[in-house]
């Protein structure tokens, strides 16, 4: 089964999660095909970040199953570490290692987790930095870069692990407006290159351009999902209509 083109890459099947009394994910069913770009939107507190975090098991689930490439998520140990290496994650706060250079930030995972030799990791990292447009920053430290540059480095760092899927949790929300586009452009390029992506974002332009599907969440549930075109022009639920009324 693993790796066969017909199977979905990520499947959440009847997933429930509670934080104490809060039923934060309620019977979530979501199947993501290879190469699909899914944009997740919804009000603050609806469970979008938690949903992302369950996919690389930064959060455990209480019911249901999650599979990646046909394999259930391992609970712990080496198997979990190798699962995590297959799921790239980019957060709102760039989370680069402050005391490592840009190049080192990108080579660390491949050398430590994948056991790649340094020369090969360097070559690959420079190519990725080139791809995200920050090749000339390789020897600097994160604090010397703009927010938009740091976020592009964070994307390069995730890509260096050759993940099967990339998760983005509000990747542009902490950026000054003039830097948002340079990050979204990199994400659009990735999407066009066939990367499987789950993107939590309020950037409706990105959703319209790059998403195959929009998933609308509210209060822990997937309320509605559709193509961006159908979702934005004709949202079905009152909650989605309400939400779009506020942000568009
Ligand atoms: P979103 O990303 O859509 O804003 P989150 O997934 O961050 O939503 O949070 C969903 C709900 O779960 C919120 O009410 C939030 O306060 C709560 N929550 C998130 N993380 C935790 C946690 N670690 N412990 C308890 N409650 C949490
Ligand atoms: Mg969130």
TrEMBL record:
CDD domains: ABC_HisP_GlnQ
Catalytic activity from the UniProt record: a polar amino acid(out) + ATP + H2O = a polar amino acid(in) + ADP + phosphate + H(+)
Keyword RNA-binding: no
Localization in the cell: Cell membrane
Keywords: Amino-acid transport, ATP-binding, Cell membrane, Membrane, Nucleotide-binding, Transport
Domain ABC transporter as annotated: residue spans: 10-244
GO CC annotation: plasma membrane
EC number: 7.4.2.1
Major localization class: membrane
Topology term for the membrane: Peripheral membrane protein
GO MF annotations, alphabetized: ATP binding; ATP hydrolysis activity; ATPase-coupled polar amino acid-transporter activity
Enzyme superclass (EC): translocase
Keyword Nucleotide-binding: yes
PANTHER family associated with the record: AMINO ACID IMPORT ATP-BINDING PROTEIN, GLUTAMATE_ASPARTATE IMPORT ATP-BINDING PROTEIN GLTL
Annotated protein name in UniProt: ABC-type polar-amino-acid transporter
Organism name: Nocardioides mesophilus
UniProt lineage: Bacteria, Bacillati, Actinomycetota, Actinomycetes, Propionibacteriales
